[in-house]
Amino acid sequence: MSRQPRTQNVTTEAGEARITWVPAATATTAPAPAPRLVLAVSHGAGGGIEARDLKALAVALPAHGVTVALVEQPWRVAGKKVAPAPKTLDTGWRGLWPALAAPGLPVVAGGRSAGARVACRTATELGAAAVLALSFPLHPPGRPEKSRAEELLGTGVPTLVVQGGNDPFGRPEEFPPGAYELAQVPYGDHGFAVPKKSGLTEAQAMEVLTGAVTGWLTSLG
Protein backbone atom coordinates (compact mmCIF):
# COMPACT_ATOMS: atom_id res chain seq x y z
CA MET A 1 0.00 0.00 0.00
CA SER A 2 1.35 3.44 -0.88
CA ARG A 3 2.37 5.97 1.69
CA GLN A 4 0.72 9.37 1.57
CA PRO A 5 2.55 12.59 0.70
CA ARG A 6 3.72 14.59 3.69
CA THR A 7 4.86 18.15 4.13
CA GLN A 8 7.93 19.39 5.95
CA ASN A 9 8.72 23.00 6.79
CA VAL A 10 12.39 23.97 6.66
CA THR A 11 13.89 27.15 8.05
CA THR A 12 16.43 28.77 5.71
CA GLU A 13 18.29 32.08 5.73
CA ALA A 14 15.76 33.29 3.16
CA GLY A 15 12.77 32.34 5.32
CA GLU A 16 10.53 29.34 5.91
CA ALA A 17 10.45 26.91 2.98
CA ARG A 18 8.35 23.80 2.49
CA ILE A 19 8.88 20.34 1.00
CA THR A 20 6.04 18.06 -0.04
CA TRP A 21 7.42 14.54 -0.05
CA VAL A 22 5.82 12.03 -2.46
CA PRO A 23 7.42 8.72 -1.49
CA ALA A 24 8.58 5.99 -3.84
CA ALA A 25 5.77 3.47 -3.41
CA THR A 26 2.76 2.18 -5.32
CA ALA A 27 -0.64 0.76 -4.39
CA THR A 28 -0.54 -1.97 -7.04
CA THR A 29 -0.39 -5.69 -6.37
CA ALA A 30 3.25 -5.77 -7.42
CA PRO A 31 5.85 -4.95 -4.76
CA ALA A 32 6.85 -1.30 -4.69
CA PRO A 33 10.41 -0.69 -5.87
CA ALA A 34 12.93 0.27 -3.24
CA PRO A 35 13.61 4.02 -3.19
CA ARG A 36 16.78 4.66 -5.19
CA LEU A 37 16.96 8.44 -5.47
CA VAL A 38 15.26 11.71 -4.60
CA LEU A 39 14.17 14.10 -7.32
CA ALA A 40 13.88 17.56 -5.75
CA VAL A 41 12.03 20.00 -8.01
CA SER A 42 11.07 23.60 -7.35
CA HIS A 43 8.64 25.92 -9.07
CA GLY A 44 9.20 28.96 -11.25
CA ALA A 45 8.94 32.66 -10.53
CA GLY A 46 5.28 32.88 -11.50
CA GLY A 47 3.70 29.79 -9.97
CA GLY A 48 3.95 26.99 -7.46
CA ILE A 49 4.17 23.23 -7.19
CA GLU A 50 0.73 22.94 -8.78
CA ALA A 51 2.37 23.37 -12.21
CA ARG A 52 1.27 20.63 -14.61
CA ASP A 53 4.76 19.26 -15.18
CA LEU A 54 5.62 19.02 -11.48
CA LYS A 55 2.29 17.34 -10.73
CA ALA A 56 2.78 14.86 -13.56
CA LEU A 57 6.24 13.89 -12.29
CA ALA A 58 4.92 13.44 -8.75
CA VAL A 59 2.31 11.02 -10.07
CA ALA A 60 4.54 9.06 -12.48
CA LEU A 61 7.93 8.69 -10.81
CA PRO A 62 7.23 7.06 -7.41
CA ALA A 63 6.32 3.81 -9.19
CA HIS A 64 9.88 3.77 -10.54
CA GLY A 65 11.63 3.99 -7.17
CA VAL A 66 11.93 7.78 -7.19
CA THR A 67 10.88 9.85 -4.20
CA VAL A 68 9.70 13.23 -5.46
CA ALA A 69 10.31 16.27 -3.25
CA LEU A 70 8.21 19.24 -4.37
CA VAL A 71 9.98 22.33 -3.07
CA GLU A 72 8.31 25.65 -2.30
CA GLN A 73 10.68 28.55 -1.92
CA PRO A 74 10.27 30.87 1.12
CA TRP A 75 8.73 33.69 -0.92
CA ARG A 76 6.00 31.36 -2.09
CA VAL A 77 5.35 29.95 1.40
CA ALA A 78 5.07 33.54 2.68
CA GLY A 79 2.32 34.23 0.14
CA LYS A 80 4.27 36.76 -1.90
CA LYS A 81 3.46 37.09 -5.58
CA VAL A 82 6.86 38.17 -6.90
CA ALA A 83 10.00 36.07 -6.65
CA PRO A 84 13.12 37.65 -5.12
CA ALA A 85 16.50 38.02 -6.79
CA PRO A 86 18.36 34.90 -7.99
CA LYS A 87 20.85 35.18 -5.11
CA THR A 88 17.99 34.89 -2.60
CA LEU A 89 16.51 31.91 -4.46
CA ASP A 90 19.89 30.19 -4.28
CA THR A 91 20.05 30.90 -0.53
CA GLY A 92 16.67 29.28 0.01
CA TRP A 93 17.66 26.22 -2.02
CA ARG A 94 20.94 25.81 -0.15
CA GLY A 95 19.07 25.95 3.15
CA LEU A 96 16.74 23.18 1.99
CA TRP A 97 19.49 20.85 0.82
CA PRO A 98 20.27 19.11 4.14
CA ALA A 99 16.61 18.10 4.43
CA LEU A 100 16.56 16.88 0.83
CA ALA A 101 19.68 14.79 1.43
CA ALA A 102 18.51 13.44 4.80
CA PRO A 103 16.99 10.21 3.39
CA GLY A 104 20.54 9.20 2.43
CA LEU A 105 19.78 8.75 -1.27
CA PRO A 106 21.36 10.49 -4.28
CA VAL A 107 19.54 13.77 -4.91
CA VAL A 108 18.77 14.98 -8.42
CA ALA A 109 18.31 18.75 -8.28
CA GLY A 110 15.61 20.13 -10.51
CA GLY A 111 13.00 22.72 -11.12
CA ARG A 112 11.05 24.55 -13.74
CA SER A 113 12.06 27.92 -15.22
CA ALA A 114 13.63 30.00 -12.42
CA GLY A 115 13.83 26.81 -10.34
CA ALA A 116 15.82 25.15 -13.11
CA ARG A 117 18.30 28.02 -13.05
CA VAL A 118 18.75 27.62 -9.30
CA ALA A 119 19.41 23.89 -9.67
CA CYS A 120 21.97 24.54 -12.40
CA ARG A 121 23.82 27.25 -10.47
CA THR A 122 24.16 25.25 -7.25
CA ALA A 123 24.51 21.64 -8.44
CA THR A 124 28.25 21.22 -8.03
CA GLU A 125 28.61 22.95 -4.67
CA LEU A 126 25.73 21.01 -3.13
CA GLY A 127 26.77 17.64 -4.50
CA ALA A 128 23.73 17.01 -6.66
CA ALA A 129 23.83 13.70 -8.54
CA ALA A 130 22.32 15.33 -11.64
CA VAL A 131 20.12 18.23 -12.76
CA LEU A 132 16.66 18.22 -14.32
CA ALA A 133 15.87 21.53 -16.01
CA LEU A 134 12.23 21.92 -17.01
CA SER A 135 11.47 24.86 -19.32
CA PHE A 136 14.94 26.32 -18.86
CA PRO A 137 14.63 30.08 -19.58
CA LEU A 138 17.51 30.34 -22.03
CA HIS A 139 16.72 34.03 -22.55
CA PRO A 140 13.91 36.50 -21.87
CA PRO A 141 11.20 36.38 -24.58
CA GLY A 142 12.35 38.26 -27.65
CA ARG A 143 15.82 38.87 -26.19
CA PRO A 144 18.05 36.03 -27.45
CA GLU A 145 21.13 38.19 -26.86
CA LYS A 146 20.47 37.92 -23.09
CA SER A 147 21.53 34.28 -22.98
CA ARG A 148 21.68 32.27 -19.75
CA ALA A 149 23.39 29.34 -21.44
CA GLU A 150 26.39 29.65 -19.13
CA GLU A 151 24.30 28.48 -16.17
CA LEU A 152 23.14 25.40 -18.05
CA LEU A 153 26.56 24.57 -19.44
CA GLY A 154 28.20 24.91 -16.04
CA THR A 155 26.28 22.37 -13.98
CA GLY A 156 29.20 19.91 -13.87
CA VAL A 157 26.82 16.94 -13.53
CA PRO A 158 24.58 14.93 -15.89
CA THR A 159 21.80 17.26 -17.00
CA LEU A 160 18.50 16.84 -18.81
CA VAL A 161 16.59 19.78 -20.28
CA VAL A 162 12.92 19.24 -21.13
CA GLN A 163 11.71 22.09 -23.30
CA GLY A 164 8.47 22.97 -25.04
CA GLY A 165 8.74 23.21 -28.81
CA ASN A 166 7.23 26.72 -28.77
CA ASP A 167 8.75 28.05 -25.56
CA PRO A 168 9.28 31.82 -25.99
CA PHE A 169 12.08 31.64 -23.40
CA GLY A 170 14.05 29.40 -25.74
CA ARG A 171 12.94 26.87 -28.34
CA PRO A 172 14.87 23.58 -28.47
CA GLU A 173 16.71 24.55 -31.65
CA GLU A 174 18.09 27.66 -29.93
CA PHE A 175 20.02 25.70 -27.33
CA PRO A 176 23.80 25.57 -27.83
CA PRO A 177 25.79 22.34 -28.03
CA GLY A 178 26.91 21.09 -24.65
CA ALA A 179 27.30 18.20 -22.24
CA TYR A 180 23.61 17.81 -21.52
CA GLU A 181 20.61 15.99 -22.99
CA LEU A 182 17.57 17.74 -24.40
CA ALA A 183 14.05 16.35 -24.77
CA GLN A 184 11.26 18.21 -26.53
CA VAL A 185 7.55 18.38 -25.78
CA PRO A 186 6.14 19.16 -29.24
CA TYR A 187 4.16 22.41 -29.50
CA GLY A 188 4.54 23.09 -25.77
CA ASP A 189 4.84 26.63 -24.42
CA HIS A 190 6.76 27.68 -21.30
CA GLY A 191 4.22 25.88 -19.10
CA PHE A 192 4.02 22.89 -21.48
CA ALA A 193 0.51 23.84 -22.56
CA VAL A 194 -0.22 22.65 -26.11
CA PRO A 195 -2.70 24.25 -28.52
CA LYS A 196 -5.77 22.24 -29.54
CA LYS A 197 -4.84 22.54 -33.21
CA SER A 198 -1.63 20.57 -32.52
CA GLY A 199 -3.61 17.35 -32.15
CA LEU A 200 -1.76 16.67 -28.89
CA THR A 201 -3.68 16.59 -25.62
CA GLU A 202 -2.27 17.82 -22.32
CA ALA A 203 -2.23 14.23 -21.07
CA GLN A 204 -0.19 13.15 -24.08
CA ALA A 205 2.20 16.07 -23.64
CA MET A 206 2.76 15.07 -20.03
CA GLU A 207 3.35 11.47 -21.10
CA VAL A 208 6.13 12.71 -23.38
CA LEU A 209 7.63 14.66 -20.49
CA THR A 210 7.37 11.96 -17.83
CA GLY A 211 8.61 9.32 -20.27
CA ALA A 212 11.71 11.34 -21.08
CA VAL A 213 12.45 12.02 -17.42
CA THR A 214 11.83 8.41 -16.35
CA GLY A 215 14.13 7.06 -19.05
CA TRP A 216 16.86 9.55 -18.19
CA LEU A 217 16.68 8.84 -14.45
CA THR A 218 16.90 5.12 -15.17
CA SER A 219 20.02 5.72 -17.27
CA LEU A 220 21.71 7.39 -14.30
CA GLY A 221 21.88 4.00 -12.61
Automatic annotation (TrEMBL):
Domain KANL3/Tex30 alpha/beta hydrolase-like span(s) in chain numbering: 38-214
SUPFAM superfamilies: alpha/beta-Hydrolases
One Gene Ontology molecular-function label: hydrolase activity
InterPro entries: AB_hydrolase_fold (IPR029058), KANL3/Tex30_Abhydrolase (IPR046879), NSL3/Tex30 (IPR026555)
Cleavable signal peptide: none
Keyword Cytoplasm attributed: no
Keywords assigned by UniProt, alphabetized: Hydrolase
Top-level taxon of the source organism: Bacteria
Pfam families given in the database record: Abhydrolase_11
Protein name: Hydrolase
Organism from which the protein derives: Streptomyces cyaneofuscatus
